[in-house]
Amino acid sequence: MNLNIELKNSRLEQAAVEARRGEAQQALAKLFSGQLDFTGWVKDPLRYDEAKIKALTDTAAEIRAKCDYFIVLGVGGSFMGAKAVIDMLPEEDGTKVLFAGYNFSGRYLKELMKTIEGREIAICVISKSGSTTETLSAYGIFKEIMLEKYGKEETAKRTYVVTETRSNYLFDQASEEGCTIFDLAVDIGGRYSVLTPVGLLPIAVAGIDIGAMLRGAAALASQETFAGTGLDYAITRQLLSGQGKKTEIFEFFDPYLAYFGEWLKQLFGESEGKDGKGIFPVSLMFSRDLHSMGQFLQQGTPLFFETFLTVDEPADDVAIPDTAMPPFAGKTIQQINECAEKGVLDAHVAAGTPVVSIRVPRLDATTTGQLIYWFEMQCAVSGLLSGVDPFNQPGVEAYKKEMRGYINKL
Ligand code: PA5
After folding, report:
1. How would you list the strands of the sheet with 96-100, edge to edge?
2. I need a labelling partner for 333 at 20 to 30 A (CA). Which of 146, 159, 206, 395 fits?
3. Are the C-beta atoms of residues 182 and 204 closer than 8 Å to each other?
4. Ligand 1, closest atom to CA 75?
């Protein structure tokens, strides 16, 4: 495994962590047993043989050959993971993946329309339910643009859909029109679907090696990986929550991880925040946020613990010229970044904040696949330890019902 987990600054008694390992292993066994609903993701990376990967990479190559822009329409688990991975890994030349259908901003849509004007495009509509307001209203808009530009037949050829292959609005429309449809398995929920066509198709179009991502994840997809100390992060979260640390702050020292933070917020927030329980997930980007939240972190209400996610070898580095202000002159940006990481860790640990450190050697496709799978497993076990169902989201329906009421009255 390419992940290095350090829990020595969690301020927990080792015996307390050890005492919950049996319970965590039972939760893990349940996840692998297939008895629980929506746990298809647990073994899914093992189901990707070369033919399945090739079907996705061939489609991606076809899209790359004919498009300047590939516009992904989806919200929540239907776009967040793909955006996180595409942002994290260095961009390839060629087709650019853009995202829409995750907000209701007319300005955003108009600017996107300006960007794609006169360029070759295809769209990817991603929705498990096939009826989400953000996604389907954006689909209506981009379909019209494509119909005008390409006509009916070519629009269908340039429309790729990921949904459950059973009757829903999107599936029925796409089938009737002859669009290419990728199946999202019924037993995999949105926020656990990055390593399915939901994430893999846009990621492959961005030129990222999805085979390496899947092999990275598959290497972790066994109970042995999480045996012994393998679930101590999930246990640590629950023990800290029990001590009143009801907020987890994910902290990054690399701006390209910002959307990975958004994905983590969704994964943990939607999985654990129910039945009056849950750890509120927050993400901060350093060093930017040290100049806005650093004061609170050091001396504010101690209601949180911090989870650092750091990368040993950055994708790039820049030397600071000798003419710069001493003592920065002659150093590199990464050297200064490492000093920031060490300094923040020392200061926050000294302030009494529990800190978990997760390090990866570098950001590449394999490590990214592992990070995604590892966090999904820790989140699922953590949710089960807290006594909630980590795979449903009944609370989301309340606002949707109210919003639909207002829309129907328009
Ligand atoms: O994780 C989830 O289940 C949600 O965030 C969904 O992904 C999100 O609500 C979008 O739903 P759908 O894919 O049905 O359009």
Report:
1. 96-100, 69-73, 121-126, 159-163, 180-183
2. 206
3. no
4. 10
Q: Give how far Cα 11 sits from Cα of 71, 245, 355, 387, Å.
A: 45, 12, 8, 24
- What is the widest separation between alpha-carbon atoms in the chain? 67
DSSP string across 59-122: HHHHHHHH-SEEEEE--GGGTHHHHHHHHHSPPPSSPEEEEESSS--HHHHHHHHHHHTTS-EE
pLDDT band at 91 (very low <50, low <70, confident <90, very high): confident
Ligand 1 contact via 269 beta carbon (within 6 Å): no
End-to-end C-alpha distance for the chain, whole angstroms: 53
Tell the residue number behind the tokens 């999202």, with chain if given.
184
Taking the model in full, what pTM does it have?
A: 0.97
Strand pairing category for 69-73 and 4-6: unpaired
Q: Are 240 and 302 in contact (CB under 8 A)?
A: no
Residue 47 and residue 35: Cα distance in Å, rounded?
18
Does residue 387 carry a pLDDT above 90? yes
Is the CB of residue 270 below 6 angstroms from any atom belonging to ligand 1? yes
